Amino acid sequence: MVTLHDALSPAEQAVAQSPGGAAKVQEFHRQLFLNASDTLRQEIKRITGMEVREASAEVEPKTGAIVQVFTSGTMVQVFLLSGNVPAGSFNSRAET
User: Fold this and answer.
1) d(Cα 43, Cα 41) in Å, to the nearest integer?
2) Which of 6, 7, 17, 49 is deepest in the core (most CB within 10 A)?
């Protein structure tokens, strides 16, 4: 998974202010990603030894974040937090 923060240009940010414009920016980045991801897919296969089954890109117009996900059959859920998590606050086992 690759996440780009503040990745939209000022022009894309302006277009994304309306719902229709946001949809156009999202579709543009999805198509851009699909057309340009072949080299990255090949590199993932070289590193992992596995084919990429699916790849998708999502754009969050309000924050300008672009998330690109490559899967090999595993379900992926992505949550983009609003800030940094303080060091030491993560506990690897769930507390009940």
Assistant:
1) 5
2) 7
